[in-house]
Design goal:
mainly alpha; three-stranded antiparallel sheet
Length: 448
């Protein structure tokens, strides 16, 4: 009833707005349009095994991603798929989907070895004997969402993790690789090796920066959730003592994020710059030897949407969350746009909406995934008014695209919702269905 009251207030406010902005009541008109398109096309994400892909899997969709298994794409597409099946699937449909869901995880584990390296993507024609780079400890690998994907599937299967048991060692090796070769020991934060394959391609906190210099808030919040997912999987496999070690790692990372990424000045979580002179070099400079620095990194005050992932990951305190919402999320000069969350604050000098495909642009356009993850954090922290507004904006964005163009796109203009690039992109855009169900106070599938 509370959410319905919020919807009424928002609809009335929009209706009386002299700017001519479309009434939020329109989201109800788009609900059947969105469902019609998604229900008709979701099984196009299914691909059979073959070649380098031993197991069936989920592909993001669109010609640009037609027959490739991607890391965080398959995970979040799976969350949307489960919502589709909840609303429109038979028991047979759900049983059929399970092999494709599990295959997303098992395909990556099948090409893993004891060193824990795992590719970001797998193509059917890939030579699995040659996919690992020679300097693999100095390159980015699969983003830390594999355990989360496995935990999501396991939890949806009533906690049954037997399907994972034979390859669980390699999942542990994957996390150990990150811990030992992608973690800055002085801060305890995780860093990208470079700017290749990071998911948020040209995030200025990482893009075109020196190797191993970016302790990305996006990476670290995802890693925190990954470690918590490993604790759950260990519990399901009766490996509680092993799980306790991952829990300790998660607690240490939580403390590191709080210490180094939270900015009391701006009320926001930022990435951290690690590109400073090492202690040994600094100590050798006689002019500065009297008072060498005692900080391990420098906060990057760049207004990037991924700061809101601190809400999604649950690493913000309630007081921090309130400041983030009031001082950052709600500000139309920075992130808050008519069609969702700008991926880069409009006040940043790098802000740009030009279409780019390699790298994909995260310099301001609205993406379905950034809308969704920000929305999920707002919901989890009890900001129902703001979550309702963002869900409505996303429904309007995708409803209009379906109605006008018959398909969704990769990213959009923040002010008028016009698509910018890649018609036919499905992927995590289908998470609008989860947001729509929440607006309607229906059961909602949530990632682990």
């Amino acid at each position: 009833m509370v959410r319905i009251a919020i919807l009424v207030v928002l609809a009335c406010c929009r209706f009386l707005d002299a700017s001519g902005q479309q009434s939020d009541a329109a989201w109800q008109r788009y609900a059947p349009i969105i469902r019609k398109h998604i229900f008709a096309s979701y099984n196009g994400m299914y691909r059979e095994g073959g070649g380098a892909l031993k197991y069936p899997f989920i592909t993001p969709g669109s010609e640009a991603y037609a027959d490739v298994l991607w890391d965080w794409d398959s995970w979040l597409s799976n969350v949307a798929l489960r919502q589709v099946l909840l609303e429109n699937g038979t028991e047979k449909d759900k049983r059929q989907a399970l092999k494709y869901e599990q295959g997303c995880v098992l395909n990556f584990l099948a090409v893993a070895s004891g060193d824990g390296w795992m590719p970001i993507l797998l193509g059917r024609k890939a030579d699995v004997t040659k996919i690992k780079p020679q300097n693999f400890y100095e390159t980015n690998m699969h983003k830390p969402c594999l355990a989360q994907h496995a935990a999501f599937i396991t939890k949806a299967s009533n906690g049954n993790a037997d399907w994972l048991k034979d390859r669980f060692y390699y999942l542990q090796a994957f996390l150990n690789n990150y811990r030992n070769h992608h973690r800055h020991k002085l801060t305890g934060l995780y860093y990208w090796q470079n700017d290749v394959g990071i998911g948020v391609d040209n995030d200025p906190a990482t893009y075109a920066r020196p190797p191993r210099s970016s302790a990305s808030i996006y990476l670290n919040t995802m890693m925190y959730k990954e470690l918590k997912a490993m604790v759950y999987l260990c519990q399901q496999l009766n490996l509680n003592e092993v799980g306790a070690e991952f829990d300790q790692d998660a607690a240490a990372l939580y403390a590191a994020i709080q210490r180094h990424c939270w900015d009391e000045k701006d009320g926001f979580f930022y990435s951290v710059d690690l590109n400073i002179v090492p202690y040994k070099e600094e100590a050798g400079r006689s002019l500065h030897s009297g008072n060498p620095r005692d900080w391990e990194g420098l906060i990057q005050r760049l207004g990037v949407w991924s700061g809101f992932m601190a809400l999604w990951a649950g690493v913000a305190t309630q007081e921090q969350a309130a400041r983030m919402v009031a001082e950052n999320y709600a500000d139309p000069r920075t992130f808050n746009a008519p069609y969702g969350v700008r991926t880069l604050s409009r006040l940043e000098k790098m802000y740009s909406l030009k279409a780019t495909g390699n790298p994909s642009s995260w310099l301001g356009p609205v993406w379905g995934v950034s809308n969704y993850l920000t929305w999920r954090g707002l919901v989890d922290y009890g900001f129902d008014k703001e979550a309702t507004d963002l869900a409505i904006k996303t429904v309007l964005l995708f409803g209009q695209d379906f109605e006008k163009n018959g398909a969704l796109h990769e990213y959009y203009q923040p002010e008028n919702g016009e698509p910018i690039l890649n018609k036919g992109f499905q992927n995590w855009n289908f998470l609008v269905l989860n947001m729509l169900a929440w607006l309607e106070e229906k059961p909602v599938v949530k990632e682990f």
